[in-house]
Request: fold
Amino acid sequence: ILAIPSLLFASTIYAIAYVGFRYRFGAYQMETELKEDILSVEKQKEDSVLFKVIQEKMENERIYLKPGLSVVDLAKSIGSNRTYVSACINSQSGKSFATYVNTYRVEYAKTIMGKDGKLSIAQVAEMSGFASEESFRRNFRNITGKSPSDWTGSVRL
Reply:
C-alpha cells in the first residue's frame, strides 16, 4: 500500500527535476532576459517620443497637405530614417504610413467642407493634399464610411 504513493511522489519529483534540467535556467539566462526587457521598454519610450514628434509635425506644420508626401520626406524633416519612422507609425498608431497621412488629410477635408460648402470635391481634394479626386473619394470612404457628398449632406442637416 505504501509503494503506490511513494512511486507517485518519486515520479513527480523526477518529472520536475527533468523539466528543470532541460530548461537550463541560470543567472546568464536571467540577465539576458532582463536586458531584452529593458531594451524593449526603452524602444517603446523612444517610439513614443518619436511618435509625438511626428504628431506635432503633422498637426502644427500640416505637412500632410503636401501632395505626394512620402515617409522619406517625413523622416528627413524630423531627422530620422524612413524605416524607423514607418515602424514607429505602424506600432504606435496601428496604421500604415499612407493610412496615417490620409487620415489627417480626410480630417482636414471634413473641416474645409464644414466651413465652405460651395467648394467642389476636386477643390477640397487638392486643398487636402490628395493627388487626385479619385484618391480623395476612395480614402474618404475608407476612413469615414461615407462618400464626401454623403458626409457633406449629413453635416448640413
About this structure: The chain has eight helices and no strands. The helical segments are 3-23, 27-61, 71-78, 82-93, 97-115, 121-127, 133-144, 148-156.
